[in-house]
Amino acid sequence: MFDTQKQRITVDIFGDQYTIVGSETSSHIRLVASLVDEKMHEISTKNPSLDISRLAVLTAVNAVNDYVKLKNRVEQLEQELKRVKD
Asked: Whole-structure pTM over 0.90, yes or no?
């Protein structure tokens, strides 16, 4: 089995410290944490009465929404590329 080295990085997200463990580079983990922090602040600014749990859920919903849109776009582009090649 292929053994990847795990990174252990402490990041700050919305004022709290989290230790993230993963096989990605530390710069990648920091970037992801920074984007989550940024999105949480953006949502919090628009909805200041949200508690942290609801804020986290809305942030996750936003992130997954963006992911689904991008995944669909990639699939469309792959289909177009396949048609062009055929």
From this structure: no
How many beta carbons lie within 10 A of that of residue 43, not counting itself?
19
User: Taking the CB of residue 26, how many other CB atoms lie within 10 A of it?
Assistant: 13
DSSP E strand boundaries for the chain: 7-13, 16-22
Q: Does residue 1 register a pLDDT over 70?
A: no
Q: Which long-range contacts (CB under 8 A, 24 or more apart) does 39-48 make?
A: 39/63, 40/13, 40/14, 41/14, 44/14
Cα–Cα distance between 53 and 44 in angstroms, integer? 12
Length of the chain: 86
* Half-sphere exposure in the Cβ direction for 73 (13 Å, CA): 6
